[in-house]
Each structure stands twice: as structure tokens, then as C-alpha cells.
Amino acid sequence: MRFSVLLPTRNGGSLIAGAVHSVLDQEYDDAELIVSNNASQDGTAEILAEFDDPRLRVLTLDSPVGVTENWNHCLAHATGDYVMLLGDDDVLLPGYFQRAETLLGAAGSPDVLLYNGFAYAFPGFAGSPHSHYADPFYSPAARLPLDGPVPLDQRRRTVGGMFAFRFDVHLNMQTALVARTAIEQLRAGCFRPPFPDFYALNALMLTVGRWVMSSERLVVVGVSPKSFGRTIHSSDQARGLAYLGIEPAFAGQLPGSEIVNGTYETLLALKADYGPELAGIEIDRAEYVVQQLYAWFVQARLGSLSLSDVGRRARLLGGRDWALAAGLLARRARPAALRRRLDLDRDDPAAQLWPGMRPVPEVNDIGEFAHWIARREAPARE
Length: 382
Prior knowledge:
By secondary structure, the protein is α/β, with parallel strands linked by helices. It is 41% helix and 16% strand. The chain has a domain at 3-228 and 358-381: Spore Coat Polysaccharide Biosynthesis Protein SpsA, Chain A, CATH 3.90.550.
């Protein structure tokens, strides 16, 4: 088997049919789609039963488990040379496997191929009535190649930057093809909570022999009502944490963005598991504090945090944290950049929460968007 597509889901509902179709409608046979149904109670099992395709395998858990455990359950049944993971609100673009084969062949069968895609936010993201999209899904830092191999020493510097909350590359399993042999060599397993793909891909960056990047857009990453990322600047972060089955807890934790807190806890796990590769690298406390201060500001501007709550949070900070934050902000003070960060557009907050997001009111779901973007991209491929 050449490719394994993992699709872990819980209560995928009507969304999952689009994700499954995007894989099984591909004209490619040397692939398997492994769906792990995490004790869904919304008709997901019945929707999956409607598909009759030998490439599809459905695993069913009788009792719900956390997201990371479900991901690992799905992975344990993979047989493909290369593995990728799809969320139930994501889709593969047409021709995914053929284009992946071409990229892997040109790169000499690397351990990891990190490609790109589009982001699609369903109506309702950041309170907007319209769909939004980003093209590309992410833009790597200029110090990294858009296309080509990334040497091990540069990758380790990139991971080191993560500990300073500098994200030179977006690490999502939807935009990665990973050799199963590379996964099997990870010393602490592949997926670990709270953010399993962030953990896995950082671990791979630290250890694998060949890592190649491509600017090809092969997938659409969905931001749906059930997406954790949709809750980050709202008063509903607890729902997102409950969906993931996590509750970040570490010494010195501050309220604010649970993505920042989950990142912090994942970095702690990486440090524990890859101490030799991360010798001399520690989490930057000043950066962490500033990230949370900014999260408070955004939440207050968007109306999910009252000024009295901001005041209560501010009192949680000790003198050392205030001094660290003030020192960092003073070193980085650039008035124009600061104005851009603070000038939230309340008419289109989606573009502020996810820079590069653009409204696409003529599209109402991710399937429509995939067809819309495929038509738009077709002339460029001819």
C-alpha cells in the first residue's frame, strides 16, 4: 500500500461525507482511508455505512476517548508507505495522490513532505455571516525554502524558534506526508497531547534524515463550528478543550489563549522527550506572557472578555512577568507594526484573527469551495 489517509472523527455528522468523498472520488487505487469513529452519536456510523469501497476501513470505538488517543488508534491500523491525516471538516483536492507521487519522486522519497493548501472558514467564523478562505494555508518564513529540502541543522533551529513562540512554519498533519518508517523510529511515539500534530511534526523535524517542503496546494483545511481553532478568542474555549479531551495545566500558566497554553504544554513534552536535541533551549517566558497579553486584548475587543475580567487577569501577573513583558515590548517597539496589531477590524474580524483570510460569500460549504478553487486554479495548471 502506497498511501494511508487517517480520518479520526467524533460526531462528524454531515461534514464527514465530504471528507470521505474527497478521498474515495480520487482516481487512484493504491491508497487506503482509515476512519476511526470515536463513539459518535450523531449518525456518523450510518453515513459511513453508505460508502461501499474496498479502500475504506471503518474502526469503531464503543466509548469516547481523547483526540490524541483516537489519532493513535487510527495510525496503528495504517499499512501505507506514507501516512497523512485528514479532519472530518477537511478535503483533499482532486489529483492529490498523483501530485503527491510526483513530488515524492522528485524529492527522492523523503521522510517527510510538507506541502501547502488552502484554508476555508465556514460561515460563522469570528461572527462573520460569510465564508472566508486563505491562499495559501500558511506562508513559511523567508529563512525556509518554499520548495526543496531543509537540512537537519536548520530544522533544529526552527524547532528552537518554536520555544520562543516564533512559528516559521505551520505544522499540521493535513499538510504533511510522513513515511511510516520515520514514524516508527520516533522514540516516544507519534502523537502526544495536547496538540498531537504539533508534537509529532516537531519531533520529526528534530530527527528525520530528509525533510522536503513544497509550495503545492493539495488540500483544503476546514475551520468549521467544531474546530478548536474557532474558539480561541471566544468565551467558548472550554468547549474546544472538551472536544480535544485536554486541559492544559503547568506551572506558571496564565489564562488567555488556550492555543498558546496547549503549545506551551506540548513544548514541555518535546523538551522531556528530546532533551539531547534540545539542549540549551527553554521556553521563553517573556514571549509567553506577551502572547497572552495580546490574547486578552483581542478577546476584549471582540467582546468575549469584559474589562473587569482583564483587570482580574492582570492581577495574576507577578512583578517578574510584567518586567519581562515590558522589556520584550520595549526592544521590539515599532509604532506602525504595533498599530496594525491593535487595530482590529470589527467589520471583518476574521481577517484579523487569521491574516490573509478573504471573504467568499458565493460559497457556503467546503465542498463548494473545493470545486470553486479547482476551477480557479485549472488555467494555471494547463
